[in-house]
């Protein structure tokens, strides 16, 4: 049974991520997410066998069966990564309410990260679906209030900070999409871990900007938020406890 759960976890991860990549490609262009998958080059429908998550790339030998152009190897790599992530989540959490929470965390933030990088936007429809799913899980857990408080308080703090810094610097300093995304993140993290994720995201982004040395270019912030949220989700409470013990509290 343990092996069965591992296999199912991988299949679910690869499948959801495959669909997530389709969403991240079509929704920013106002295209329907229904219908056949199409080749990026010739835009003809891809056969069913070739769109099987992860395996489809190898069945097609890495080329479109219509125009024979190369298919980006990024697709199977991302699907493989998602499958392994789902397995890791299962091994860490087992069969529990937190397992789908960790899965939703990855899928939503992966989609939003890709869209932010490619289109410089945050898809409200994606994080809102994640928010509703997490809200239902927290209700079943009987732990709704800590997460509602986290969601509302952190969103309010970021909104106020954006307003104040906007007045000071006469331009937008925090993206509205990033701020709204924290409504979703609040359903993932209790308030102190949520605030910790903002700190980590800022530090990681700052290091990236310094290394890149391009200070006036647009920097997609959602990927940094995603890494910071995962760190805070897995280790945030341990980090907070370590810090409190360090200062004698």
Helix and strand topology:
Layout: H1 2-26, H2 55-59, H3 74-93, H4 98-119, H5 124-141, H6 144-169, H7 176-185, H8 191-212, H9 222-246
How many individual helices?
9
Low-pLDDT stretches: none
Secondary-structure element series? HHHHHHHHH
The termini sit apart by: 44 Å
Q: How confident is the prediction overall: mean pLDDT? A: 87
Residues in β-strands, percent: under 5%
Provide structural commentary.
This protein has 249 residues and is an all-alpha fold. 69% of the residues lie in helices and 0% in strands. The model has no long low-confidence stretch (mean pLDDT 87).
Pick out its properties.
single chain; 249 residues; mainly alpha; 69% helix; 0% strand; globular
Could you write a compact summary of the structure shown?
This protein has helices at 2-26, 55-59, 74-93, 98-119, 124-141, 144-169, 176-185, 191-212, 222-246. The protein has 249 residues and is an all-alpha fold.
């Amino acid at each position: 049974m343990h092996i069965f759960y591992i296999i199912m976890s991988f299949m679910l991860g690869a499948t959801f991520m495959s669909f997530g990549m389709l969403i991240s490609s079509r929704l920013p262009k106002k295209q329907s997410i229904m219908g056949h998958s199409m080749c990026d080059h010739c835009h003809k429908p891809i056969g069913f066998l070739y769109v099987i998550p992860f395996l489809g790339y190898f069945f097609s030998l890495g080329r479109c069966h219509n125009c024979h152009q190369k298919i980006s190897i990024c697709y199977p790599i991302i699907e493989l990564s998602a499958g392994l992530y789902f397995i890791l989540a299962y091994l860490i959490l087992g069969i529990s309410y937190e397992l789908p929470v960790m899965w939703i965390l990855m899928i939503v933030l992966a989609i939003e990260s890709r869209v932010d990088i490619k289109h410089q936007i945050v898809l409200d429809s994606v994080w809102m679906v994640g928010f509703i799913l997490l809200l239902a899980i927290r209700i079943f857990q009987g732990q709704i209030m800590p997460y509602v408080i986290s969601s509302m308080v952190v969103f309010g703090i970021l909104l106020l900070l954006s307003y104040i810094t906007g007045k000071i610097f006469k331009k937008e300093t925090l993206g509205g999409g990033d701020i709204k995304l924290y409504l979703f993140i609040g359903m993932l993290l209790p308030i102190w871990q949520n605030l910790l994720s903002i700190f980590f995201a800022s530090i990681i982004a700052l290091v990236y900007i310094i290394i890149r040395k391009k200070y006036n270019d647009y920097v997609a912030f959602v990927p940094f938020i995603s890494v910071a949220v995962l760190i805070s989700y897995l280790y945030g409470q341990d980090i907070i406890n370590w810090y409190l013990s360090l200062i004698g509290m």
